[in-house]
Amino acid sequence: MKSNKNGKAARPTLPRLIEYIKPHSGWLALSMVCAAASVIFTLFIPVLTGDIIDLCIGEGKVELSAFPPMLIKLGVCVLAAVSAGLLSSYFNNRITFRCARELRLKAFARITGAPLSLLDSAPSGELINRVTGDIDYVSDGLLHAFTQLFTGVAAICGTLVFMLRASARASLPVILLTPLSIAVAAVIARGSYKYFSRQTATQADMAGYLDEYVGRAGLVKAFGREKAACDGFDKINSELYECGYMAQVYSALVNPSTRLVNNFVFAAVGVTGALIACRGGLTVGQITMFLAYASQYAKPFNEISGIAAQLTAALASADRVFKLIDTPFEDADDPKEPLEAAVAEKIGEVSLENVSFSYSPDKKLIEELNLQAKPGQRIAIVGPTGCGKTTIINLLMRFYDIRGGKIYADGRDAYSIHRGELRQRYAMVLQDTWLMRGTVAENIAYGAKGEVSRAEIEQAAERAMASPFIRQLKNGYDTVIDDGDTLSGGQKQLICIARVMLAAARNHGNGTAESMLILDEATSNIDTRTELLVQQAFSDLMRGRTSFVVAHRLSTIKSSDIILVMDSGKVVEQGSHEQLLAKNGFYAALWKAMTENS
Ligand SMILES: Nc1ncnc2c1ncn2[C@@H]1O[C@H](COP(=O)(O)OP(=O)(O)OP(=O)(O)O)[C@@H](O)[C@H]1O
Ligand SMILES: [Mg+2]
Fold first, then answer.
1. What does each C-alpha distance from 578 to 257, 373, 572, 588 come to in angstroms?
2. Phi-psi bin for 544: left (phi > 0), alpha (psi -120 to 50), beta?
3. Residues in a beta bridge with 571
4. Tell me, what's the pLDDT at 103?
């Protein structure tokens, strides 16, 4: 399995990108046919114009009767060239944006399905940029490659064929000046790529900087760091100015230099054509045709070199996107079907046997942890900040995988069932308040499956003591919670509590009630009076469920069946409140300190 994944990650970017285009190969072929047709029809226009000019050369030699059919032909050519070009452009857009949509979907699926260890360690801005900015670069690169690369190559080849067909000698200056066109295009492309890529990187830096400072405006103000913040911004801004300015200088060089090369080709073709015409080798109409080709000759070279630079940037972006897409799903190795059958009398039983875990291999955290929780028991986890309380919750929920030992939930090995199924067995309110963009009502209903009525939402909020403050919000339950921190920490916690109340009530009704409950500092930001009221609702929730409660306020966990006292990743004491007080150890000291202070 692993080698397979690694093998996939090592695959080169371009062939992988082509794989995304393959399903659209029919459309791509159509687009190429249309682009070729557009180029050929465009190249026919100077031929027809030349022929028309040749109809009116010399006194009394104007063949008026031949004009209308020639003009019709010219009109048809112009119309066909434009229509074929539009069709090709339509197909290219269709292919490109479908590929981008597919890439985005896969990348987002990986973000939601990736292990928490990846999401916790990667800066969120960087991950977001892969799904938005990087995929935009890929689609821009593909679109330009499709539209301009093929058309450009076809235009250069077609022009040479049309010229050679009319006169090999008159084509000679164009062929001889081709290296000049290539050299000028390459110099401009190299310069603009250098500055454009620097500009892109600096823009990403600026977005990150702004994100950080806008998000922490309060911190900046509190410590009077406004000037330092502006200085830091100015540095990035100056860099952005410099590379943006230089990128535009190179961009601005494209037109004059193309015109310069075209003028060389134009003059050379004009002189050579005139000399050949003097000897009767070319008509005036044919010279006009040659001049028309010459005036357009250098343009595709610039376009192609520009695309080469853009494709390089697009491939670098695609590489970052594929690295994300290659992240294994956290449940990749989970059994799809439970390996062990559930035993009714073991529902609610949780045990940890010699569990060891650390976030990084070089820093030990949890070692040889043992715990036996019988169905319906209340387990409290207490201990100083950073001792590993939330980590135990992370292990129970399989947000992180243990490095050694065994965890049993509902009497079954937690690793013998799919983690989705395991998580459904737990109702939880976590230390971090997870609210989504949406209304208060939508947030409360988030954990419940199926249609949820407003009455159910209000009932849950009532039980969680959240309804008084919700009713005072501008739009009550329909108030939109967006990114802005418009709710207090305690209010957010009350919404999360209402969410678990609703989900639990729902699942109780449909027979899929969770057998375990996790409360990790669920009321840490709530005032004591409201907390006491919420505790009552929690007691109802705990009835019939094995519960794990993390709390700093020991008074709230005093009546627990088992109190796990932790210090530096180890369980230093375990027992009931009375047993631990009698032991006169770590817990007794904590209790004493707390009761003396209050
Ligand atoms: N995602 C993570 N990656 C690496 N280390 C982590 C991660 N989460 C926590 N830690 C570290 O693991 C240790 C235990 O953290 P944990 O969150 O379990 O503490 P806690 O007991 O819940 O603390 P608190 O009372 O402050 O909530 C800490 O030293 C912390 O720095
Ligand atoms: Mg914690």
1. 88, 18, 16, 9
2. left
3. 566
4. 94
Residue of minimum CA distance from atom 28 in ligand 1: 386
Task: State the amino acid at position 5 in one-letter form.
Answer: K
Helix 67-113 to helix 13-21 angle, to the nearest 10 degrees?
Answer: 110
The H or E element containing residue 361 is none
Q: How many CA atoms lie within 13 A of 232 on its CB side?
A: 14
* Any atom of ligand 1 within 6 Å of the Cβ of 528: no
The pLDDT tens digits of the residues spanning 459-477 come to 999 999 999 999 999 889 9
Take atom 2 of ligand 1 and give the residue whose Cα is closest. Answer: 359
H helix or E strand, kind and range, residue 546: strand 546-550
Instruction: Identify the band that residue 180 occupies on the pLDDT scale cut at 50, 70 and 90.
Output: confident
Half-sphere exposure of 203 (CA within 13 A, CB side): 11
CA dist., res. 279 & res. 508, Å (int):
100
Q: How many whole angstroms from 389 Cα to the centroid of ligand 2?
A: 5
* Type and span of the H or E element at 3: helix 2-10
243 near 198, Cβ under 8 Å? yes
pLDDT for 433 beyond 90: no
Q: Pick the residue whose CA is nearest to atom 13 on ligand 1.
A: 386
> What average pLDDT does the segment 111-129 reach?
80
Beta pairing partners, 372: 351
Task: Kindly give, in sequence order, each residue whose CB lies less than 8 Å from that of residue 400, ignoring residues fewer than 6 positions away.
Answer: 115, 116, 117, 357, 359, 391, 394
**Torsion angles phi and psi, residue 235, rounded to 5:** -60, -50
Tell me if 387 CB under 6 Å of ligand 1. yes
CA 566 to chain centre: 38
- Amino acid 558 reads K
Q: Using the structure block, give the residue that is written with the tokens 């209402």.
A: 498
Q: Which two tokens stand for residue 354?
A: 């010699």
Does the CB atom of residue 394 touch ligand 1 within 6 A? no
Instruction: Tell me if 460 sits within 8 A of 505, measured CB to CB.
Output: yes
Cα–Cα distance for residue pair 327/316, rounded to 1 Å: 18
CA distances to 223, 225, 233 from 228, in Å: 11, 5, 9
Query: Of the ranges 198-202, 342-346, 505-509, which is most confident?
Result: 198-202
By most ligand atoms within 8 Å of CB, the mutation choice from 355, 357, 390, 392 for ligand 1 is 390
- Domains parsed from the chain with CATH numbers: 10-189+254-325 (1.20.1560.10), 345-422+556-598 (3.40.50.300)
b or e along 519-555 (b: 16 or more beta carbons within 10 Å of the residue's beta carbon)? bbbbbeebeeebbeebeebbeebbebbbbbbbbeebe
